[in-house]
Sequence to fold (566 residues):
Amino acid sequence: MKSALPIASVVVAILAIWYVAAALLNADLQRDLFANSGRTAYSTQDLIEGSLNMERPKLPAPHQVAAELYKLVLLTPPTSKRSLVYHGAITLEETVIGWIIGSALGVGLAVLIVSMRWLDRSMMPWIVASQTVPIIALAPMIVVILNQFNITGIAPKAVIAAYLSFFPVTVGMVKGFRSPEPLQLDLMRTYSATRAQTFLKLRAPASAPFFFASMKVAVAAALVGAVVAEVTKSEDGGLGARLLAGSYYGQTVQIWAALLTAAALSAALVGLVGLVARLTQRRMAFTS
Amino acid sequence: MDASAAQKLMPESGGKASAPEATIEVKGLSLSFDTADGPVQALSNVDLRIARGEFVSFIGPSGCGKTTLLRAVADLETPTAGSIRVNGLSPGEARASRAYGYVFQAPALYPWRTVARNIALPLEIMGVPRKERDARVEKGLELVNLAGFGAKYPWQLSGGMQQRASIARALSFDPDLLLMDEPFGALDEIVRDMLNQQLLSLWDVTGKTVLFVTHSIPEAVFLSTRIVVMSPRPGRVYDVIDCDFPRDRQLEIRETPEFLAIANRVRQGLREGHSYDG
Fold:
């Protein structure tokens, strides 16, 4: 309960800034609307009220987004193509599949890099380079290439999600596998332990905290990848497709509703990983 | 440590003390490290013979190479020149034949393993079957007075208990040799006195050969059959002092004139060998 007050203060502050920003950004648009309808006499209060309740504002006010979310999440049946639950489920599926593929790939690469020193130097630059290419440029290529092999539907989008999520896992796990102290490694040497034994009995368990930290970053990255992929390939739906549709028709309220849904989904996934991490690490006795 | 219990539990190792042949033979040993500031001579022309069942302490200021010497015997460092034989084998072969248990300055227990599973770690690596592993862990816990603490995690134990667990771990596979690198350096005086006495009875019961690195003069004199005084820059043996108190010595011997005379000789050796011009 001690943390409730700071959290509430931050939420209030964000909402306040959001309202002020919305009023300022939309005021010009609202003035034009008043002018077009021939209304010349209006108070500042009228202007602010109008700015916060426009149909197509530059920045929708929080209560507009909340109303939209209420409508699209709770009132619309989840089977409808307008429902954010429907689209969120699509994004969730791609994210989770991409995250699993990416994590497996990331851990695998880290194992290779740690067990073969020459791979560190020869492979790491490529791994880093892979992440310097903007995913928005790469995503259409991946879709087109995979289409050549008749890989369509959810798979190419999961691949794009995996592409973004393997990197933090590789970097984190390389660090994790190398985290044992020199003394702990010397100990293994005094037993003449094989490299595989040292890996299984020391490096792998020692990397557990790094594993969960990597997983958190990876799941958030996978969601970004999935949304970008949906913007590229929007015919199958998903939150990214809703973003694209919203921007086509200037439906800013719809864009923000989809955006907040994606953020909530990401936060929920990260929170879930955090929970599993806490339970596991308590079991492994890393913490009291 | 419960001497009578340990004697019953480890009868096969009790008799090894009688054979007087050299367990460790060091000849003309030199070892230098390459550092950013050029090579550093950690050990220079060290000769040493240690017989089976001896308790030999290495004492000297920082940089005298006492830890390096121990690590070279354990095949954790590679000598630049000279030879080391352990049980007639090279250090590498001795390590592969599991000739020694090593106790580090820090307990180096794995935090995700219980005390029992930490002690079982070398046995797991050496492929000892589960049932025998459990039996040996039980013995080990009794040997270091930690019976009943097997299910605890390292962080639930005091520093002294952690170091005792690490001694049990080093002894779990019953090696001939116990190499100890300032094992009690981080502990307070009272705990240290107690552990010294326990270590001594452990040595008496098991008949292991012990190589023991320390900073403390009373600790070295109290524990050892021989004290090797080392001096730095380059690391070398300055003096070797015999110390023949009875094996079951008590802490009270530290007040006797004989004890003080040896302690004085060690102190003098340290002073003469220690150049502060560095």
The mean pLDDT of chain B is 84. The beta strands of chain B are 22-35, 38-51, 55-59, 81-86, 100-103, 177-181, 209-214, 226-231, 236-242. Residues 5 and 160 of chain B are 21 Å apart (CA to CA). The first helix of chain B runs from residue 3 to 9.
